[in-house]
Automatic annotation (TrEMBL):
Pfam families: Flavoprotein
Top-level division of the source organism's lineage: Bacteria
Listed name of the protein: UbiX family flavin prenyltransferase
Alphabetized UniProt keyword annotations: Flavoprotein, FMN, Prenyltransferase, Transferase
Region (Disordered) residue spans: 133-163
Domain Flavoprotein, chain residue ranges per copy: 27-120
SUPFAM superfamilies according to UniProt: Homo-oligomeric flavin-containing Cys decarboxylases, HFCD
Source organism of this protein record: Microbispora hainanensis
Length: 163
């Protein structure tokens, strides 16, 4: 990808300013929380608006706008997964910031740029430097009669038994 774009914030709010403009119906297309801690995920999932970040996320959901949560913790226990399910049920999109190596990144910056571009695309922001995945060249030339990856005998995939 080309060099990163830089942006200057037009407005910076205090984290504790629960009465800021973005805390009540401020017109935005969507919101991305990246990285999103499990604490923030839990607060959003439960609707406990303890700070401006969580309140803005709550407003985004109640206004039926897109909210993308890039949950960063690993490994996860069942409580974390329940919070992700709850957040999804109330309208959030869970998009862990996992590196995609199919794009053949050459640097850590490439990995970060790819994750950010994917998150932006989830709220409808097109990033010209990050076109959507078009598939592999081989997938574009397959015909219906050729073997597909899912057609292989599961017992022989990767030379291991399917369990």
């Amino acid at each position: 990808m080309p060099s990163r774009a830089t942006f200057d914030a037009e407005v910076v709010h205090n984290f504790r300013d629960i009465g800021a403009s973005i805390a009540s119906g401020y017109p935005v297309d969507g919101m991305i929380v990246i990285p999103c801690s499990v604490k923030t995920l839990g607060a959003i999932a439960s609707g406990v608006s303890e700070n401006l970040l969580v309140r803005a996320a709550d407003v985004t959901l109640k206004e039926r706008r897109r909210l993308v949560l890039c949950v960063r913790e690993t490994p996860l226990h069942l409580g974390h997964l329940w919070a992700m399910v709850t957040a999804t049920e109330i309208g959030a999109i869970i998009a862990p910031p996992m590196p995609a190596f199919y794009s053949n990144p050459e640097s850590l910056d490439d990995v970060v740029d790819h994750i950010v571009a994917r998150a932006l695309s989830l709220i409808g922001v097109h990033v010209p430097a990050a076109p959507p995945w078009q598939g592999t060249p081989a997938s574009a030339t397959r015909t219906g009669d050729q073997e597909r990856p899912g057609d292989a005998d599961p017992a022989t995939v990767l030379g291991r038994p399917a369990w």
